[in-house]
Amino acid sequence: MAVKNVVALAGGVGGAKLAHGLARCLPPGHLTVIVNVGDDFTHYGLHISPDLDTVMYTLAEIANPQTGWGLVDESWQMLGMLEKYGETPWFRLGDRDIATHILRTHLLTQGETLTAIVRKMSQALQIDHTILPATNDHFATMVDTAEHGTLVFQHYFVRHRWQPTVTRIWYDGNATITDEAAYVLEKADAIVICPSNPILSIDPILSVGDMRDRLRLRRVPCVAVSPLIHGKAVKGPADKIMRELGVDASNTGIARYYDRLIDALVVDKGDAPQQGAYLETNILMLTPADRERLAREILQFLEGMT
Ligand code: FO1
């Protein structure tokens, strides 16, 4: 059977890169990216959805190529003005990026759902695939740390530069998955878990409502792409957090972490896990061509599994 409709689960920068590769390989309308919203928070009264925006900007090909988050050709006048008022703006909102947060916050106060808002913005940015938040409900990743107690995710990740020792992760809010996410999972021919942080970015998607059970009971192949190369995170704190929470920071650890959720793990050459099926290839995505090549290999691999 041909793999026509693909659902990808993604967090921020690493996940967005593979989603972009998949978007370039699949015909318009055949990819849905279900995105983590556990990183969402309110900052200066604005509803910020970092991972949704990272995926949206990346698929629209307007993401900042240096950081992976935020917009290309950004300016920072607003932050300068905040500093003039004596603020310490630790979360860098660019002048153009802030339009997204203002509009999203406004539409939320008008009663629109996050799903409808992302659809509207994606259409305006001419994205011809679908981006869905995992939930429209309040659902916030909370990080218990040894040094600073409990931190809202962005305070842990950006304000404290993911340096505190993590003792536990939990979620604030009782959320259900959206009808749209349930529908695309039902219609999917294959599922791809992007190379996002399994604990910080993928677990909050799996922890929304019955998402984990839906994945376990799937009738289609599901692969995950490892965020590690020889035990080191390609970007961010994946290996650090895995160690802190007692998860083996290796592809074997990732394969165990995703036990029963995936049929195979996609890993870098020479870095095979000691358990489970796997595809060995070059998983480092430095250029858009790398993203497309990796996506194509994954789609071919999935075709062979159906
Ligand atoms: N990440 C940073 O490391 N520093 C920032 O100042 C920062 C600002 C920011 C603004 C908008 C946005 O959409 C994302 C932003 N990020 C920033 C990235 C982001 O918070 C994290 O990478 C993700 O939440 C983790 O996936």
Structure, described:
This protein has twelve helices and 14 strands. The chain has helices at 13-25, 50-59, 77-84, 97-109, 114-124, 153-159, 179-187, 198-206, 211-216, 238-244, 251-257, 288-305, and strands spanning 6-10, 31-35, 41-43, 46-48, 130-133, 140-145, 149-152, 166-172, 190-193, 222-225, 228-229, 232-233, 264-268, 278-281. It has a single domain, classed as 3-Layer(aba) Sandwich (Rossmann fold), CATH 3.40.50.10680. The radius of gyration is 18 Å and the shape is globular. α1 runs parallel beside α2, α1 (13-25) crosses α12 and α4 packs across α5 (114-124). The strands form four sheets. Strands 5-2-1-9-10-13-14 form a seven-stranded parallel sheet, with helices on both faces. Strands 7-6-8 form a three-stranded antiparallel sheet. Strands 3-4 form a two-stranded antiparallel ribbon. Helix content is 39%, strand content 19%. The relative contact order is 0.16. It is of the alpha/beta class. Ligand FO1 binds at residues 11-12, 39, 50-51, 53-54, 69-70, 91-93, 97, 154, 157-158, 201.
